């Protein structure tokens, strides 16, 4: 989960000028990881020891999360997808090495796959206030997600993009499903993290909002209601960043490999860029009922990409992979314009061949593997070994 304590690095002015002059959008990625025992698959309270081994030059990009069994990284904003991929690989590699030096392992998985002791929260005033206000809404070692930041021209335009994003986000959630296991068993869901995350009072699809003023008013109302401590706890599936001029797409599990995360980022940027044209052309956002969106997100959490989801145009169930392909075709012009089409095509093929993280975990179990085998394999994927398998 995101506690609102970290964010993408402030964009370099030269990069921002280059993006504006070519009418391109920057993007950045935040990833949250679990820390597990060096041998067993259970979570461990190792975050402070891990920080002691993080290289000083990366310290600004590595942050605490809610529990002592988690850690978060944030890439700098980028224009080129290849540069983003390198930054994420370097962060994963460095934090994996730091975890191993601290006697733990880094694991890109949405929820704790194995039973273990209770993991305490990090000793920070804000986290203690969250625990006092909301109790134990995040059971186990913690919940780990992926957040993609895409630049937008201004807040008013950003709100209109949020309206247009609403029907597309269930298929993004399906593509990121990477938490079928919890406390040593298969939950029956591709993303059990999604179900646990919905315990928080502000989690859910972004409401349709007529203006940035309405957005601000609703955020203030939610804060005064006590449902969140501050804007950092606005856990809608897409929101305006409280710190940066970006739309933040944030409903997905952390993904097994850098390559998976890069594909998500490329598609997110291309989708925001496509919707930006629709906003500028005055095209109204689709009128999607909130209960139907909730149903589509539930289906995404349950099935991942390996089952069905809801086609928002027809309101009928369709194979999720067909909807994923529909998304890819819809944003193809912006993938090409941003220079991402070739990379995204290759990565889309890999995802189709190997499946979501949930499918990969279940494949190991179906071949006679144990939860420990799943964790061992995903630790290697997190570290960057054999991303194509």
TrEMBL record:
GO terms for molecular function: ATP binding; glutamate-cysteine ligase activity. Keywords: ATP-binding, Ligase, Nucleotide-binding. Its EC number is 6.3.2.2. It catalyses: L-cysteine + L-glutamate + ATP = gamma-L-glutamyl-L-cysteine + ADP + phosphate + H(+). It comes from the Bacteria. The keyword Ligase applies. The keyword Ligase applies. GO terms for biological process: modified amino acid biosynthetic process. ATP-dependent carboxylate-amine ligase which exhibits weak glutamate--cysteine ligase activity. Belongs to the glutamate--cysteine ligase type 2 family. YbdK subfamily. This is Putative glutamate--cysteine ligase 2. It comes from Paractinoplanes brasiliensis.
């Amino acid at each position: 989960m995101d506690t609102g304590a970290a964010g993408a690095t402030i964009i370099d002015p030269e990069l921002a000028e280059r993006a504006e002059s070519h009418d391109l959008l920057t993007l950045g990625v935040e990833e949250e990881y679990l820390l597990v025992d060096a041998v067993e698959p259970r979570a461990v309270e190792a975050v402070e020891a891990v920080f002691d081994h993080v290289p000083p030059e990366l310290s600004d990009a590595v942050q605490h999360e809610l529990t002592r069994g988690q850690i978060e990284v944030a890439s700098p904003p980028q224009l080129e997808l290849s540069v983003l991929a390198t930054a994420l690989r370097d962060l994963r590699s460095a934090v994996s090495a730091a975890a191993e030096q601290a006697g733990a392992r880094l694991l890109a998985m949405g929820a704790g796959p194995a039973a273990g002791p209770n993991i305490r929260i990090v000793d920070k005033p804000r986290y203690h206030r969250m625990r006092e206000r909301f109790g134990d809404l995040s059971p186990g070692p913690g919940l780990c997600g992926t957040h993609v930041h895409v630049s937008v021209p201004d807040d008013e335009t950003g709100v209109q993009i949020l309206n247009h994003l609403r029907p597309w986000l269930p298929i993004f959630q399906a593509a990121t499903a990477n938490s079928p296991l919890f406390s040593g068993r298969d939950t029956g869901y591709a993303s059990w993290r999604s179900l646990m995350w919905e315990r928080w009072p502000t989690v859910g699809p972004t409401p349709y909002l007529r203006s940035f003023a309405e957005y601000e008013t609703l955020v203030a109302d939610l804060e005064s209601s006590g449902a969140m401590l501050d804007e950092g706890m606005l856990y809608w599936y897409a929101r305006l960043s409280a710190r940066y001029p970006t739309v933040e797409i944030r409903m997905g599990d952390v993904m097994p490999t850098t390559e998976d995360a890069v594909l998500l980022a490329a598609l997110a940027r291309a989708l925001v860029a496509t919707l930006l044209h629709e906003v500028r052309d005055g095209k109204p956002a689709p009128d999607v009922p909130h209960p139907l969106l909730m149903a589509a997100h539930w289906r995404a959490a349950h099935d991942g990409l390996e089952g069905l989801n809801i086609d928002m145009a027809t309101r009928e169930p369709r194979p999720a992979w067909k909807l994923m392909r529909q998304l890819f075709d819809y944003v193809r012009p912006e993938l090409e314009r941003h220079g991402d089409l070739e990379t995204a095509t290759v990565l889309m093929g890999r995802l189709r061949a190997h499946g979501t993280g949930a499918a990969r975990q279940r494949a190991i179990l179906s071949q006679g593997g144990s939860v420990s085998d799943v964790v061992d394999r995903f630790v290697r994927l997190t570290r960057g070994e054999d991303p194509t398998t």
